[in-house]
User: Fold this.
Amino acid sequence: MASITIKNLPPELHQKLKAIAKQGGRSLNQEILQQLRLAAVSALGPAQLKAELANIARYHRQLLAGGFHPLCDGEVAALIQAGRKR
Assistant:
């Protein structure tokens, strides 16, 4: 997997990203990746976006067909709490 280094990151942007990451329950690295993904998707043209959404839908159908059960937010929070109590 590729890595990058961000140079000259303004302190206020760093703090903002950290706050958003904490609010979303993600690490700073995960938050930066999420923001980059969102930026890349927003840069897609309509045809590319439609194709990407179709890929996501196909992947989701495959997960469900394979018996995958997506967790709701409450279930995720309960599992996190259970893990912290160990």
Summary: Helices lie at 11-24, 28-42, 46-65, 73-85.
